[in-house]
Amino acid sequence: MSWQPDTWRDYAAAQQPEWPDPQALGLTLERIRALPSLVTVAEVRRLRAELAAAERGEQFVLQGGDCAESFAECSSARVKSQLQVLLQMSLILVHGREQGVLRIGRIGGQYAKPRSAPTETRDGLTLPSYRGDNVNAPEFTAQARNPDPQRLLQGHLLAGMTMNHLRGLIEGGFADLHHPQFWEFPWMADSPQAVEYRRRVQGVRDAVRFMERLTRASSSALERIALYSSHEALLLDYEQAQLQAHGAEHYALSTHFPWIGVRTAALDGAHMAFFAGVANPIGVKVGPQMDPEWVLELCRRLNPRNEAGKLVLIARFGADAVRDGLPPIIERLAAEQRRVLWLCDPMHGNTETTANGYKTRPFAKIQAEIAASFEIHRALGSRLGGVHLELTGDNVTECLGGARDLQSADLERAYTSRVDPRLNAEQAVELALSLVEME
Length: 439
Known about the structure:
Blueprint: H1 22-34, H2 41-55, E1 59-65, H3 76-97, E2 100-106, E3 119-122, E4 125-128, H4 142-145, H5 150-171, H6 194-215, E5 227-232, H7 236-241, E6 243-246, E7 249-252, E8 257-260, H8 270-275, E9 282-286, H9 292-302, E10 311-315, H10 322-335, E11 341-344, E12 352-353, E13 359-360, H11 363-379, E14 384-390, H12 408-411, H13 425-435
Helix pairs in contact: 1-5, 3-5, 3-6, 3-13, 9-10, 10-11, 11-13
């Protein structure tokens, strides 16, 4: 049977909310379908070319942002801070690795989250689980937890505002390499990493001035960057509503780079059926529950023509499991000469719960998984092409360790994430500094 945009409806769709009013859902999806797309086909095609270059080792992928965006936190200041931390990290990586950096933000649509259970019980009351702001609200009340399709429309509009503001910042010169000093956060002034970061900044500024003296011209290429959006493509009704046909190809224009999580990567599932016909580059999270044959088959389905830049595998094994779980998959795909770009997600496999009840991630384990991944790929003749991180420009205390050695008692001071713990900007900069020494 040939692929159609609604083929996925013949398969089991995991992690979908139970919308109480199908008619209201249909009307909302019709409205979203009529609105301007969040990204363009030209941008998506450009990203595919960039990912193919990363696959060849010509640049390094930095993908990062919130675990789950919040409607309430959609503001110009917050969008700017997310861009700032990505710019800080990419500056360090460009300077330290002497390699281009492809920036992909978990931003402009990361409003849905998979859950371990469909319901949650507190004090004898059972309600639907919070599935991200695109579905319901986090407050533990029947009204807040009721899935509301109008939230899909609100999420679409806020994602559009976010993308518009990012484009405005970039086109307006905020990402100009002539002035990287503007990216520093005031609260990082006394950071243990501040001296080294400023040394890197000065190195970049010196290099820019040298090049412009040599060419006797200012390079406009240094005044702006490309930033692509990504989110976990969880809600298939929403993704289908933004599918557009261009010739024989169909593009999901809710984001440049959709990815499939481990909870929805079943070979016989609806997500695999839907994205088998989508022309965007597709990411898939790969974890300990997936064996080499499973991963090989998903490569065949999502990239049947074995094209460069089409498929990104995002490994999330954890520091303690990566040396056992990752090599057999790399070897199996290599034996079949499958084209993939490998990223390391060192966050999700290293999640722990502290004695005082906070979900956290130790910074040392995050570093350890990335370092091990570089070693594994190098030993097997493969290449680690980038990292996939949950981070924020906010001064949060959600991940343990780092240069300030955050402890369990520090978590309650500024733990604001509704779902998963994120690196703060200081920890993100520290991680970028360590990344340049790893390969």
